[in-house]
Amino acid sequence: MASNANLTAARQSFVTHLECSMTGERYEADTLHGLSAVGRPLLVRYDLDGVRGAMTKDVLSRRPADLWKYRELLPVRSPDNIVSLGEQETPLVTLDRVGAKRGARAPIVKDEGRLPTGSFKARGLVMAVSMAKALGVQTIAMPTNGNAGAAAAAYATRAGIEMVVLCPDDTPEINVREIAAQGARVYRVNGLIDDCGAIVGAACKANGWFDFSTLKEPYRIEGKKTMGLELAEQLGWEMPDAIFYPTGGGTGLIGMWKAFDELEALGFIGAERPRMYAVQAEGCAPMVRAFEAGVEHADRWEDAHTVAAGIRVPKAVGDFLILRAVRDSGGAALAVSDAALLAAVDEAAGDGLLLCPEGGATLAAYDRALDAGKVGRDERVVLFNCATGLKYPMPDKSRTIDRHAAIDFASL
Ligand SMILES: *Cc1c(COP(=O)(O)O)cnc(C)c1O
Fold it and tell me: Which residues form the Tryptophan synthase beta chain-like PALP domain (predicted)?
């Protein structure tokens, strides 16, 4: 990785300031911030004229294919603070059989399971930890449903920052173990992710730790926005017709929407946008309920349950940003059942791609949108698979062979 100029070359970051996503109030760059004064996420702003001069399409096409190629549009100023584990560009994989079966153009999966720690949480956390390092943070605490904690643990450990992670006690076992294996202290809590978040908040106050909860620090969005930058570049700077995104805290959806605005300001794309579909599970669908009710904020979803742990988020601090992007794009928020999302995982495996349950949810939601006529069969659709399916339990479909008995080869 030392040979990757994206990580070592002196390149200017064009960050100018931070801004409250609700009130527009300005905050100074390069100092430590949590939420804004009104308790809402802060967004990072750039001198986009400056970026335009330094980062052209042609320049980008000649840089190594990882998320650090967009450095001018990212907050980390000095390469010394980049804490990388190799955040390579993730591939676009078409589901040809899935498409053929529906008489539709094959949906495209952006397979984020190829990133370090096996999920797209790496994009957000590599940025947040690099900035924490730049700003001198010593201990970070965060609540997680699994993948975020794993990515945070890996990068924090690499950066020499102490990491404390709290997760619901039914978090997938592999996540709990990988968090500890990658150097963090991990606690199981008898509650949901927002219950963990409340304890984290109190612990940060008591112990002087930095709160890394989703959207409570400004830089995870900047990391996640690289999904939008990368997707646009991979598609030759053409927007797809629709994006299906498995939505928990919504960082990725908010980040991509921000990326598209920045790309338009840079003149890389026009005013066209994909319709954004926020996908949730029927057992935890606060965004879907708020979308259908036509309101700007989402109430907490009680008794949240779904096998898709990454989207089991009863309450999101960026709710209004998710709903705004979905509505402005002409998309929708859609809920699917656990049975439907698991069946979708099964079906995509028939195209050779093992989705995670949250990724399966996007395929199930695509079906619902197709049936409802929200998406056309000829449209270019991108589904986000946000973690490798290998991190989740799978049904055992194996059979056994007794090597000491006679084997009926015709029956194999
Ligand atoms: C975290 C996570 C999500 C939800 O992402 P947000 O951007 O926080 O909404 C979806 N899928 C997987 C696998 C995740 O780990």
Answer: 83-386
Question: 323-377 pLDDT, tens per residue?
Answer: 999 999 999 999 999 999 999 999 999 999 999 999 999 999 999 999 999 999 9
| Single pTM value for the model | 0.96
Q: How far apart are CA 312 and CA 306, in angstroms?
A: 7
Ligand 1, atom 4: closest residue by C-alpha = 248
Domains of the chain: 5-81 (no CATH), 92-114+225-390 (3.40.50.1100), 121-211 (3.40.50.1100)
Using a 6 Å cutoff on CB, does residue 113 contact ligand 1? no
**Are 395 and 125 contacting, i.e. CB atoms less than 8 angstroms apart?**
no
Judge if the beta carbon of residue 154 lies within 6 A of ligand 1.
no
- The answer to whether the CB of 226 is under 6 A from ligand 1 is no
Q: Are the beta carbons of 6 and 89 closer than 8 angstroms? A: no
**8-state DSSP, 381:** E
> Helices 251-265 & 226-234, crossing angle to 10 degrees?
60
- CA–centroid distance, residue 252 to ligand 1 (Å): 8
Q: Look at residues 46, 43, 50 and name the one whose alpha carbon lies nearest to residue 16.
A: 46
